[in-house]
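ok here's 23S rRNA (Guanosine(2251)-2'-O)-methyltransferase RlmB:
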Amino acid sequence: MVEDHDKNEEILAGKHSVLEALRAGRTLNKIWIAENAQKALTAPIVAEARQAGVIVQHVDKRKLDQLAPGVQHQGVVAQAAPYAYAEVDDLLAAAEAKGEPPFLLLLDEIEDPHNLGSILRSADCTGVHGVIVPKRRSAQITATVSKTSAGAVEYVPVARVTNLGQTIDRLKELGIWVVGTDVDTDQDLFGSDIFTGPVAVVIGNESKGMGRLIREKCDILLKLPMLGRINSLNASVAAGVIMYEVLRRRRTLSSR
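and the structure:
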């Protein structure tokens, strides 16, 4: 039988998700580890949990399957405090604290939690200061997102906004260039020199792309060159390509 857990608490699943949550100082109430889990994989989690004073229980794997249904938990599940979403101002403050021009991602109705998790993982690797998602019609932070992000969700702040269009207007007022991605535009991603300044890159929905209003609000539209017969990439793959191009441009500028 599954233990009751507070609806205001969140389930994390997977060794990377749980380990990075511990290292990031997130409040965990309890960790469950499968009795047949490999000790070499779970030892770092047990050590971090002991240091943080978090209870660890070794249980039958079936209990973990019940706690995190449908998630590949790798024999590790934790009960955590609810994910703390950031404010847009927090993302801008993070850029200022690093002395860098803001580099933000705006996700226009990304619905697949696996895509959101993959985007967060790439965002952490490329120095994105934060991700902005709408409160409606968008994937939110869940155990699946945390697992897919390999724990990056603990390090990349995510802000939820009621109106993405109004958020774009505000960012533009602050001098941040809003860059949209569109297969039907003429300008090539690799031919633009916009990425060395303050930018917010919009990634559209998996099937529909960017909404019409969001598209119209972008300062510039860029496309990824396509040389094959398939003219589009998975949303998280496209986002990763763009993020690394921003990183490349900024590193090239700083090395001059």
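+1. The two ends are 62 Å apart (CA to CA).
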